[in-house]
Specification:
It is a single chain. The protein is α/β, with parallel strands linked by helices. The chain has helices at residues 17-28, 65-75, 116-127, 145-152; strands at residues 2-3, 10-11, 37-40, 58-61, 81-82, 102-105, 131-136, 155-163, 170-177. 24% of the residues lie in helices and 23% in strands. It has a single domain (2-177), classed as Rossmann fold, CATH 3.40.50.
Length: 178
């Protein structure tokens, strides 16, 4: 749920710094495997800030115009941010492509955000050799339709961490080609 009618745009309660640090810790396991990363769903930037200077360059993606403005105000216009929808990103190895890279995603994937198009785009990215580090407020793979679908298709999906000091508690999942 997002607030967009008040003075500032953001999730009802932003992710905690502890959660941002945990997402970075999990993603850092894959820095040596990939030459670049794509961070999808920057939101207020609480998690994205941990990916500003990793050993691999990241491009940031956010479709909501208010979050795009907030991102540039917080991190400056020189930080590479694409004001695009995730579904418009190609599955290739271009600078904004989702092919053969580390994808860190804080975009919502449950409830009304779930779609067949989402399954297809994640599947295509995983089949290209990418690894996806995805956050969710739902802690169990079997309760997340996207994960359940991809697991049935043979992809590896593991919950690798949960941060209880986040409101609500948030989990980190790693999705890979099995």
């Amino acid at each position: 749920m997002y607030l967009t009618k008040f003075k500032s745009t953001g999730s009802v309660i932003s992710s905690s710094d502890q959660f941002g640090a945990k997402m970075h810790q999990v993603a850092s396991r894959y820095f040596a495997t990939y030459g670049r990363g794509v961070f999808v769903g920057t939101g207020s930037g609480v998690v994205a800030q941990y990916f500003m200077q990793p050993p691999v360059p990241f491009v940031f993606v956010e479709k909501h115009p208010a979050f795009v403005r907030q991102f540039h105000e917080r991190f400056g216009s020189a930080t590479p941010l694409l004001g695009k929808d995730f579904f418009t990103l190609p599955i290739d190895q271009s600078s904004e492509g989702l092919g053969n890279c580390l994808i860190v995603s804080c975009m919502p994937v449950t409830g009304p955000f779930y779609s067949e198009k989402l399954v297809e785009h994640f599947r295509d990215a995983l089949n290209s050799g990418s690894t996806i580090v995805q956050m969710s407020y739902i802690p169990f793979v079997r309760q997340i339709r996207l994960f359940e679908r991809l697991q049935k298709e043979g992809f590896s999906i593991q919950r690798v961490a949960t941060v209880l000091l986040n409101v609500p508690p948030a989990s980190v999942f790693v999705l890979r080609k099995a």
